[in-house]
Hints:
Elements: E1 2-6, H1 11-22, E2 29-34, E3 42-45, E4 48-54, E5 65-68, H2 72-84, E6 88-91, E7 103-104, H3 107-110, E8 122-124, H4 128-144, E9 146-155, H5 162-176, H6 208-221, E10 227-234, E11 241-253, H7 255-263, E12 268-270, H8 282-285, E13 291-298, E14 305-314, H9 318-332
Parallel strand pairs: 1-2, 1-5, 2-4, 5-6, 6-8, 7-8, 9-10, 12-13
Antiparallel strand pairs: 3-4, 9-11, 11-14, 13-14
Helix pairs in contact: 1-9, 4-6, 4-9
Residues 6-13, 34-35, 37-38, 55, 69-72, 74, 92-93, 128, 158-159, 161-163, 316-317, 320-321 line the site of NADP nicotinamide-adenine-dinucleotide phosphate (NAP).
Amino acid sequence: xNVAIVGATxxxxxxxxxxxxxxxxxxxxxxLFASPRSKGAKISFRDHMHExxxxxxxxxxxxxxxxxxxxxxxxxxxxxxxxxxxxTVIDNSSAWRMDPETAxxxxxxxxxxxxxxxxxxxxxxxxxxxxxxxxxLKPLADRFGLDLxxxxxxxxxxxxxxxxxxxxxxxxxxKMKFQDVEPKAYAQPIAFNLLPGIDVFDTDGHCYEEIKxxxxxxxxxGLPNLDVxxxxxRVPTFHCxxxxxxxxxxxSITRAEALDAFRTAKxxxxxxxxxxxxxxxxxxxxxxGRVFVSRVRLQYGHNSSPWLQFWNVADNLKKGAATNAxxxxxxxxxxxx
Length: 337
Ligand SMILES: NC(=O)c1ccc[n+]([C@@H]2O[C@H](COP(=O)([O-])OP(=O)(O)OC[C@H]3O[C@@H](n4cnc5c(N)ncnc54)[C@H](OP(=O)(O)O)[C@@H]3O)[C@@H](O)[C@H]2O)c1
């Protein structure tokens, strides 16, 4: 099975290589592409060094599956041409997510949209913070119905790609030497700081990361009128996004019912302990492709309530990007999850 990764040298692209390596797709013949800057770089895949090629649409002729992770404007430029020459493009950027003709897929939630051996098309991989949230919302929506979702995110710098990782590393080093730090990737220093907004603001004060969480959640869950109120915050961690999610359900439930819904859900690791040491955190879940849910509880003072809150943490480069894309590819190739 011929597969190309475009953006293979990026934070997400490198994880895609690792996820493909561990996937059930044992017969993958992989080609790696990036910008001309990376031509000749070497990346290991299944014990062989693969040379990164400079992207050209022509060079991808005959490759049926393209994992695209090279930014939105680049994807807008090339993805339709790739489909026209016979490739299915699984795109990581925001370019196609809200296009009505394009499926926006999280396999645990709406994997039924993926049809084996379907004609070449673009399939959009959702935003990282949205993916981990909808995996956790799915069992609640199925069992109890969703009325409202409120979320505060704590998002790591790898969500900004290699430049975010380099920025935090450089600023930490400088701070330790009592030197001043000049922000580049963000408007203010990220080291020892919290930045209360991600991506550009609209005229009503919402930032684009928050808008993505609203729009994409509605589309993936097939709930176009769902109220979603998101607050997205960049924090000085390297990997994983944490989210404190509050939901209002369509009916009152007990804590036991909520725990039971999460316990049997696809893609979720549930921690039921009420202690500090066992809580999943960015440090404990880095490199894992699953979504970790814990601190599940009702509104204080109630034994039964439609209001529920929980902590949700996942690796943004894994389930938030590469793992989800590779799961889409596996499903298209007929692998059962
Ligand atoms: N980071 C996350 O958590 C995350 C999660 C979900 C979705 N995404 C999305 O995934 C995409 C990639 O993000 P990232 O974090 O991996 O970014 P990144 O670390 O900056 O990597 C970008 C990749 O795109 C390549 N690229 C840039 N311009 C190109 C061109 N003209 N032709 C071919 N390749 C080109 C880069 O190649 P060079 O190395 O040669 O420059 C690099 O491989 C973005 O659309 C992002 O929004 C990211």
